[in-house]
Amino acid sequence: MRLATIATPEGLRLHVKARSGYVDVAEATGDPRMSSLHHVLCSGDAALDAIRGLQDRDGREVSLADFGPAVPTPPRILCLGLNYSEHALEGGRAVPTWPDAFVRGSDSVLGPYDDLVKPALTDKYDYEAELGIVIGRGGRYIRAEDALAAIAGFVVLNDASCRDWQRAGSQWTAGKNFVGSMPIGPEVVTTDEIDVSDLAISSTLNGTVMQSARTSQMLVSVPATVEFFSSFTYLAPGDVIATGTPGGVGFARTPPVWMEPGDEIEVTVEGVGTIRNRVIAEKGAPSDWRWRPTDTKAAGL
Fold first, then answer.
1. In this structure, are strands 264-269 and 109-110 parallel, antiparallel, or unpaired?
2. Which of 289, 290, 253, 240 is nearest to 87 (CA)?
3. Tell me: the pLDDT tens digits for 38-60?
4. Does one domain contain both 14 and 148?
5. Containing structural domain, residue 19
């Protein structure tokens, strides 16, 4: 089953991919609460089963511009860094023996085909192709062999990163949390539809393939990732886990390759989908803003 959040005159509403087009779940079930993916995930298997019954209907055609973030308001976005050995090595690091975790805020999500705004405060805007896990049942102390039962499905995401902000301090938070910097979608593909253990994953910038790998190359697999994060926190319905990016990112190239206004960046995960975003320049940022990693003295440091 494939679930999408789509813009309508009533706002963003959950849809299911049907025999043709997409069916508005709330409209078809007569339950307005079913317009929210978060409500559906919190309601458990009964709600998902009701949606499965809508797949044989005829829906409406939807333009790419109408797709919203597949998970519009995730309670949390938990992320793994350095989860492919090639990516760790290209950054001059040893292959990690412990998962490297960080967190994104929900206001960093963006629609799968929306314009990706290059922040005015960065000169080093990088792409990161990733497979995302969407938590369904969730829980605490979830063993790897039980992980699929805790997962609702999977998405494609671009963990776009401001490398100068990421590296200005010892923590990654600032560089990973600019508003609208993580396109996610186009659909949540449920676990009964796809096996993500060995899928092709890639990014393409202006038609040139920049990253190409397989999810089987992850250092921490999808089940182990769920087990790891549930070791220290309760995974809640709607939480998103970003599973890390392969080698080939922009900062590691010679010369470095950064996303610039006018570029088009695509991220594809085999069987899950493709997201595509045009990069545009941020407007309205103060020209005299003192916090710029390229000149820490300007910030009074």
1. unpaired
2. 253
3. 999 999 999 999 999 999 999 99
4. no
5. 2-66
